[in-house]
Structures are given as C-alpha cells and as structure tokens.
Specification:
CATH architecture of the largest domain: Alpha-Beta Complex
Largest sheet: 9 strands, mixed
Radius of gyration: 20 Å
Number of strands: 9
Shape: globular
CATH topology of the largest domain: Spore Coat Polysaccharide Biosynthesis Protein SpsA, Chain A
CATH superfamily of the largest domain: Spore Coat Polysaccharide Biosynthesis Protein SpsA, Chain A
Number of helices: 14
Length: 325
C-alpha cells in the first residue's frame, strides 16, 4: 500500500483540485492522509469532509507548526509500505502512483522519481489528458542520484519512497525550504533510486506560495540548508559530494542575488548576499567551482551577461519564476 501525505494549510480554493487528481489515480491500493496544519480558512472542515466521504482518506489536525512538521506527522500516521508527498496546491497525473509503484518494484529501488511540469492553473486540464510516453528509465545508487540532482530535483514531491528511508531521517522542522535541507539525506539513505523522465507531477505556480514568499527568513533558511549540505559532505569525506554541494550553494546565491536585486528591489540585500558567497568560496578554496560561478564571484554583471548568452531562459524561468511555454 502507498500512503499519500498531503499537508494542508489554508488551501480551501486549491484542495478540491488536488484531491480530484489524487482520488482519480489508476492505482488502487493507497491511503490519503490529509494533515491539517492549523488552517483557518475552512480547509480544516474540507479535510474532514473528504475523510467522511472517502474510505481511504484520513484527516488529522494539529496546531500550525509548518510544512515539515505536517509531513513528519503524516509519516507517523502512515500505514503503507511506500510513502508519497503531495503539496495541497499541486496535481497528479492519473498514472502517477501506478507508474512510480511499478518503477520501484521493478528495480527493487528504495526511491522512485519522475519528472514534473511547472504550470499555471489554466494548463491543468491539458496536463491531465497527456499521454505518458516513457523516453528514459534509469537506475542510480543514492550517491549517483545526488550527483544527478538536476534530474531528480530538490523536492520531496515527484518521488515515491520506501518507508525504510524514514527509519532515521525526517524533515527539519521550523525552517522554510525544508526540501533543500532534506532531499540529499533521503537520496543518500537509498541503496537504489529508479528514475523515469515522464512528467507526472504538476507543480502549480502560485504567487502566494511559500516558494514565492520574499522574506529575510526565506533567504536565511535556504542559505543555511545549502551550507549544511556542504558540511554534511565534508563530514563524510566525500570530495565529489562536496563539489556538487558547493555547486548547489553557488546556484542558490546566484538566484538569491538577482531575486533580491531585481524582483524585490533590495540592492543592499543583494550586495550582502554576494559578499556572503565570496566568503564561502574563500573558505572552500580547494573546490574548483564552474566558470559561470567564478564569473559571479568576481562580477554579478558579467555572470548575468554570460547567462543571457548561454542560457537565455534562466533569468525568466528561475529568477522571475515565469512559466515558459
């Protein structure tokens, strides 16, 4: 059985859409655990309604403690051999659970991963009707999966986990960007990770979502998570892991710099972010960072021009968060 854990916090407008996709799965042996994280907009009542009307849906309620705490509560409540996480404002393709379950069983993997599609709400209907044609299917060790993080993605969702992954690991509570702080630990706890490039998870772009929220805490939590990753690899004396963790730190600081400068209009904050990045690079001089990040180290303006020529969609998609058709 699969336990699908859905944290819910003030999602009255989005939860019906999410649950329609979850309850419309072609796979039948699963339970849904709705973890109401102290909602105040009626979502808490909606969770109870789903639980009353659907025999495989269960609702639990807790005082607001954040996304990580809600996910951890769901893990404690889960009865399934496998666990999947779905954000309550996203959607699943009808074959999501079936495809990942087949993948994880076929390869005897600990984690199965699929690709995802970023979209606006108006694109959901077309996504749900998409015919899934598998182009790529690969297997990695946990370490190899981390090294292919651009492929497997830094997210708790788009994955199916064997529950043994959570025997010793949990989401870090009390922070934003908990996925960045946890995904590498989950991957490195796995002996095997199976991957398909089929886009089965629908990530819905919302301006008021956690990932779109501009705040000093958001920056500090993300920076802290990226830095802890670097230290984690260092403690395990894994040079290749350190290189990729440093690359991830570089990706974060580049993104944070341009978002705070151009999206939030806080040039002074952006300058502090750049200064902090230079400090981290100097403290890890033995790690040779890629050319683009060396450019950013010396001059964000040169980095911007380089990315404009080499990866034209980077600024609009990653910095501005626009969906490019």
């Amino acid at each position: 059985m699969i336990s699908v854990i859905i944290p819910v916090y003030n999602l009255q407008k989005e939860l019906d859409r999410c649950m329609d996709s979850v309850l419309g799965q072609t796979f039948s042996d699963y339970e849904v655990i709705l973890v109401d994280d102290g909602s105040t907009d009626g979502s808490e009542n909606l969770c109870d309604t789903f639980a009353r009307n659907c025999e495989n849906v269960f609702a639990v309620h807790q005082i607001n403690a954040g996304l990580s705490a809600a996910r951890n509560r769901g893990i404690r409540e889960a009865r399934g051999e496998y666990i999947a996480f779905v954000d309550g404002d996203d959607v699943l393709h009808p074959s999501y659970l079936e495809t990942l379950h087949t993948l994880i069983e076929k390869h005897g993997a600990d984690i199965a991963v699929c690709d995802y599609k970023r979209m606006q709400p108006k694109q959901i209907s077309g996504f749900m009707k998409t015919q899934t044609i598998k182009k790529v299917e690969k297997c990695f060790s946990g370490k190899e999966a981390f090294l292919h993080r651009a492929m497997v993605h830094q997210a708790a969702w788009n994955k199916l986990y064997h529950r043994s992954i959570f025997a010793e690991e949990r989401f870090t509570e009390g922070i934003l960007h908990e996925d960045v702080d946890s995904y590498y630990r989950f991957l490195l706890s796995a002996k095997m990770v199976a991957y398909t490039d089929v886009k089965l998870y629908g990530y819905i772009m919302r301006e008021d979502s956690i990932s779109a929220e501009a705040s000093p805490k958001r920056y500090k939590d993300w920076a802290g998570a990226a830095y802890r990753m670097l230290r984690y690899m260092e403690e395990r004396n894994w040079p290749e892991g350190r290189f990729h963790a440093m690359e991830e730190n570089s990706e974060f600081y580049c993104l944070a710099y341009f978002q705070w400068r151009d999206v939030y209009g806080k040039k002074s904050v952006a300058d502090k972010i750049h200064a902090k990045y230079k400090q981290i690079v100097r403290a890890n001089r033995d790690i040779k960072i890629p050319y683009r990040y060396r450019l950013f180290y010396h001059s964000p303006a040169l980095f911007y021009q380089y990315m404009k020529c080499k990866e034209k969609a980077w600024y609009s998609e990653v910095v501005l968060g626009q969906v490019v058709e």
